[in-house]
């Protein structure tokens, strides 16, 4: 959630520049260009020549401080009318809060851990240990309304875990007879309760009362663990202060941004920055936290805090981590994809998930068990503050609305900005903010994507965050829909809102393009206004595209073939192929020209580690054949 904090803030500030008074037509001097050159030189020096995270952060904050001295001291018109002054101070306040979140972000990225070598050593030790010496693990799969096609793969994955004493339990808050029967057929424990009090936290707490293994692994209903999940994580509990081991949430499908903008191959899902940059950094400060799924918890931690998960917030996983810190336990983070699940499959599912996170994050501010309560170190209070849900949304929306207000009304968010101050103060700060994060998290930060995703979320996340800030329990809990339950409609509210802002920007530019229509007094500012408006229009257009849900062509996610497949037909020689894709329901293979396949023909596949699978040809296009499994 903090991924674009510094970049978001710099955009909000940049949108203020175009609304300023005056310009400067003097040629640029070396002195004016010096701050920008200092940023570039510092980031190259500390990012490549002499790698130093402290050096990168110091370079960024020297430039931010240089910017703030000018921003606070020169850009507020204290003699303006009450309304105009209030607007200027509000914009400044949002910038300062966003900069506070940027400071927490940079502090987090100062430390990063890589615990793969530790996991390797632990895994070797566990593999050679006597099976009877290894502790039992209860594996909880918490479910409410997920369909069979989602649950089945998770249960099968849990049954395949490599561990001597691994007990799989399905915690069914849906009380479904068909799931009970399936669990019985697989030898899996099925636990239910008479009500759904406490939602997921209550479900897990009920399961804890009926089980007794000293360690508890928790998976959401859509996450499939890798076979070596426990072998890679359990060794960390050799350290008695480790209460939780968490691994990333990795996804085998595309999120709405990747899908709707056709960027599946061009960029990772929007949670990679959090799991691959922020969580290792938090781990370095002993501030990593349980993320609900893909974790193992020491039962003694539960016992030390009352026997179960705290349930004052719907983000019970974060409260568990805070309670553990107060009890002397830390959460260890292993940055390895050891379980794979479903990213939200529709825009509606995406917002159900993100609104729940924002709601839970703001709820913990009201609890004595939250980051403001007693018993925590100062660094932990900082890193568990959820202020980014408000600051990011406000900064993004101000960045779009401020130029529209200026073009249509002449209202400015800051004054006394000339072109030389843009070159000397603002642009170096923007460069430092964006390039600094990119240098601290190489290959994991995509500035444009962070901006677009931030704006997209702001329309729906900011209202929830603000409402929860004042009414912590005013919004009902909703489970993220998965599988066939995920709604596939398009997001009309954001689409029309973004479209309206886009059109207002166009109207503002059109009105001020002619001298006899112009509302803006300073004609020299119009080119600067136009530049930032075009950036906003590009982002609004991408936001609108994200609202249009791309249709799902297949019922199951397909994966590239990585082995040879043999196709057998009656009376025909077998055909061996190794190019194409495969899913749980079908197979598409390439390179079968002249093999005589026909639609409707019966085929048997031979797959290694699976065996013979009956199938039927449903499509023949050139040298590509599509089959559906029997």
Task: Give a description of the structure.
The protein is α/β, with parallel strands linked by helices. Strand 14 and strand 15 (586-589) form a beta hairpin. Helix 2 packs parallel to helix 17 and helix 3 runs antiparallel to helix 17 (419-440). It is globular. The chain has an eight-stranded antiparallel beta sheet with strand order 11-14-15-18-17-16-12-13, with no helix packed on it. A seven-stranded mixed beta sheet has the order 3-2-1-4-8-6-9, sandwiched between helices. The chain has a three-stranded mixed beta sheet with strand order 5-10-7. The longest helix is centred in the N-terminal third of the chain and has 28 residues, at 82-109. It has helices spanning 5-17, 30-49, 53-74, 82-109, 116-128, 148-159, 177-186, 199-209, 229-233, 256-260, 272-284, 299-304, 316-326, 347-363, 378-383, 388-409, 419-440, 447-470, 492-511, 526-546; strands spanning 137-143, 166-172, 189-191, 215-220, 224-225, 242-246, 250-251, 295-298, 330-333, 339-341, 559-560, 565-569, 572-577, 580-582, 586-589, 602-607, 611-621, 624-629.
Shape: globular
Unreliable residue runs:
1-26
- Helical element count? 20
Number of β-strand runs: 18
Q: How far apart are the first and last residues' alpha carbons, in Å?
A: 43 Å
Which strand order does the major sheet show?
A: 11-14-15-18-17-16-12-13
Structural class category? alpha/beta
- In terms of DSSP E residues, the strand content is 5-15%
Largest sheet: 8 strands, antiparallel
How many whole angstroms does the radius of gyration measure?
A: 28 Å
- Range of helix content: 40-55%
Give the overall average pLDDT.
Answer: 88
């Amino acid at each position: 959630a903090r991924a674009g904090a510094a970049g978001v803030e710099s955009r909000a500030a940049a949108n203020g520049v175009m609304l300023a008074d005056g310009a400067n037509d003097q040629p640029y001097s070396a002195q004016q260009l010096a701050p920008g050159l200092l940023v570039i030189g510092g980031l190259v020096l500390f990012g490549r020549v002499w790698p130093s995270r402290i050096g990168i952060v110091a370079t960024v904050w020297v430039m931010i401080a240089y910017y703030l001295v000018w921003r606070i001291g020169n850009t507020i018109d204290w003699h303006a009318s009450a309304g105009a002054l209030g607007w200027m101070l509000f914009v400044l306040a949002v910038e300062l809060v966003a900069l506070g979140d940027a400071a927490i972000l940079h502090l987090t990225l100062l430390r990063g851990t890589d615990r793969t070598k530790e996991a390797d050593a632990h895994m070797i030790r566990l593999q050679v240990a006597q099976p009877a010496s290894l502790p039992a693990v209860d594996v909880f799969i918490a479910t409410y309304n997920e369909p069979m096609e989602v649950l089945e793969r998770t249960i099968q994955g849990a049954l395949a875990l490599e561990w001597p004493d691994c007990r799989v339990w399905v915690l069914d808050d849906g009380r479904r007879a068909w799931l009970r029967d399936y669990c019985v057929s697989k030898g899996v424990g099925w636990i239910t309760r008479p009500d759904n009090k406490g939602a997921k936290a209550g479900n897990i707490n009920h399961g804890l009362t009926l089980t007794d293994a000293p360690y508890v692994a928790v998976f959401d209903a859509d996450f499939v663990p890798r076979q070596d999940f426990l072998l890679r994580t359990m060794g960390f509990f050799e350290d008695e202060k480790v209460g939780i081991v968490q691994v990333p949430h990795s996804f085998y499908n595309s999120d709405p941004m990747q899908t709707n903008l056709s960027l599946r191959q061009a960029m990772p899902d929007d949670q990679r920055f959090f799991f691959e940059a922020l969580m290792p950094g938090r781990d370095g400060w002993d501030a990593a936290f349980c993320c609900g799924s893909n974790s193992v918890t020491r039962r003694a931690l539960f016992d030390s805090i009352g026997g179960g998960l705290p349930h004052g917030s719907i983000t019970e996983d974060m409260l568990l981590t805070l309670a553990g810190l107060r009890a002397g336990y830390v959460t260890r983070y292993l940055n390895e994809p050891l379980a794979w699940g479903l990213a939200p499959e529709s825009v509606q599912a995406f917002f159900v998930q993100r609104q729940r996170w924002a709601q839970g994050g703001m709820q913990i501010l009201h609890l004595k068990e939250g980051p403001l309560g007693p018993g925590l170190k100062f660094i932990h209070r900082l890193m568990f503050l959820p202020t980014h849900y408000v600051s990011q949304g406000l900064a993004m929306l101000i960045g779009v609305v401020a130029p529209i207000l200026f073009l249509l009304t002449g209202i400015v968010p800051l004054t006394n900005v000339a072109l030389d101050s843009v070159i000397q103060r603002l642009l170096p700060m923007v460069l430092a903010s964006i390039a600094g994060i990119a240098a601290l998290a190489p290959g994991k930060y995509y500035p444009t994507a962070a901006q677009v995703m931030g704006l997209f979320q702001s329309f729906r996340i900011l209202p929830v965050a603000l409402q929860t800030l004042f009414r912590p329990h005013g919004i009902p809990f909703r489970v993220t829909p998965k599988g066939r339950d995920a709604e596939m409609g398009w997001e009309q509210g954001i689409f029309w809102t973004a479209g309206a802002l886009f059109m207002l920007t166009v109207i503002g530019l059109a009105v001020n393009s002619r001298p006899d229509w112009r509302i803006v007094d300073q004609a020299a500012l119009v080119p600067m206004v136009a530049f930032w408006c075009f950036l906003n229009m590009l982002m609004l257009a991408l936001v609108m595209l994200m609202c249009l849900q791309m249709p799902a062509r297949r019922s199951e996610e397909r994966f590239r073939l990585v082995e040879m497949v043999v196709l057998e037909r009656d009376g025909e020689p077998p055909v061996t192929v190794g190019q194409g894709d495969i899913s749980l329901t079908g197979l598409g293979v390439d390179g079968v020209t002249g093999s005589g396949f026909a639609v409707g023909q019966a085929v048997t596949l031979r797959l290694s580690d699976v065996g013979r699978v009956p199938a039927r040809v449903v499509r023949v296009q050139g040298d590509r054949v599509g089959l559906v499994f029997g």
